[in-house]
């Protein structure tokens, strides 16, 4: 299995990033105001939305291509856990419970990526950076 580790890390980076790239892109344009209102209704300052988009879209692309991978993965891990706690804490709702657990699972994937690094097929490797 060791010989497939770098290929597996590349595939994992791509798969885990797609969700965040699509989510970040989806918050741009006409969805921006609605997302900001939702955040404020959940007692999260709407002014944090640009940072959310930057992490989801920019961070998703960075992880996908293996740039600043470990650092971005740590921030995304924290983001996933906070999102679960702040937005999906109504366990009387089955969907919220599922979303809470989904965020924790994705966060665990980012935590593992932060610990293992991006692998051989990454910009970090080309730049010889561990970030």
From TrEMBL:
InterPro entries: DoxX, DoxX-like_oxidoreductase. GO terms for cellular component: plasma membrane. This is Membrane protein. Its main location: membrane. Keywords: Cell membrane, Membrane, Transmembrane, Transmembrane helix. The lineage of its organism: Bacteria, Pseudomonadati, Pseudomonadota, Gammaproteobacteria, Enterobacterales. Coiled coil: none annotated. It is a multi-pass membrane protein. It is found in: Cell membrane. Belongs to the DoxX family. The chain crosses the membrane at residues 7-26, 46-65, 72-88, 100-119. It comes from Xenorhabdus hominickii. It holds the Pfam family DoxX.
